């Protein structure tokens, strides 16, 4: 079973990214053949500053390695080290109707948030389909917001296979994790673009400050509280061991618990989980050659895989490349 996922290098990664996507990617390395890439071509739809994109791309690699992605188990690489994905995106665009893209929620949401409605933003799902199909991926672990893009990928695979009368592409399936939507400090979906994140690698003091500012209702301490609607509890549930979650559930439902206690414990758990990764990241940062070497070596392997698919694609549609 081949599992593939990508994450855009478009900003500092946060708890929503971790529990919504990265945690699964890291866990999957022990179970499946895993491909994880840094979607720097996709990030161009929002980051249009060369040095910044270069730094953010390296940052995502550092984050994954610090959080425990083992580059000997999973293939961690840069999207741009396989430029053929843009060739495949073009080819897929010629078998895809405008109507399919016009239905994309993500495009509409991004434009509503003020991101420039470029042609690239509109055709973003085609490049994403190319990422998935070029590696013949079976499963794509993503957050809920990306599921429509996977369904569009299935459609595009079908359009191509039907047009050329052969099964060049494998049909991928989305793989959702438990944490479909991680709330931010204001209770909305945690997202870079809402400014409500707790970043994975921010220093302990600033993370604690953000955690202590998480929005709660005004139920007084001596009244029972509903854990199912509380943002602090939602995060505790993700980070605390199950027995402790059950204990908090009891404490919420009984009088006498203040939200401040739950926040303090959440800050401690955050530090216990991400503190060691922060240290590891600092030491990895001192060895940029190692990180570059991982990306380069893995990029070559990914490239070889992609090239096999591209030969079948070019052969099917009659595109001749003189180096073939
Ligand atoms: P952002 O909204 O901060 O820009 P991205 O769109 O780059 O995040 O998301 C990268 C990955 O992280 C996607 O798979 C997405 O589903 C997941 N993700 C992001 N925010 C959340 C969240 N709050 N809850 C669950 N998953 C999330
Ligand atoms: N669109 C994804 C996101 O915003 C990132 C991405 C690009 C991706 N290509 C992909 C995810 C291929 C999975 C598979 O999170």
Q: Assess the beta-strand content as a share of residues.
A: 5-15%
Mean pLDDT: 95
Rg, rounded, reads 21 Å
Runs with pLDDT <50, length 5+? Answer: none
Order of helices and strands: EHEHHEHHHHHEHEHHHHH
What does this structure look like?
- With 324 residues, this protein is mainly alpha-helical.
- The protein has 2 domains: 2-182 and 289-317, Rossmann fold, CATH 3.40.50.620; 201-283, Orthogonal Bundle (Tyrosyl-Transfer RNA Synthetase).
- Helix content is 55%, strand content 8%.
- The chain has 14 helices and 5 strands.
- The protein has helices at 15-28, 40-43, 50-67, 84-93, 98-102, 105-112, 119-122, 124-134, 147-164, 204-212, 231-239, 242-253, 259-285, 288-317; strands at residues 2-8, 33-39, 75-78, 139-142, 173-176.
- The strands form 2 sheets. It has a 3-stranded parallel sheet with strand order 1-2-3. A two-stranded parallel sheet has the order 4-5.
- Helix 9 links the parallel strand 4 and strand 5 (173-176).
- Helix 11 packs across helix 13.
- It is globular, with a radius of gyration of 21 Å.
- The relative contact order is 0.14.
- The model has no long low-confidence stretch (mean pLDDT 95).
- Bound molecules: adenosine-5'-diphosphate (ADP) and tryptophan.
- Tryptophan binds next to strand 1, helix 8 and strand 4.
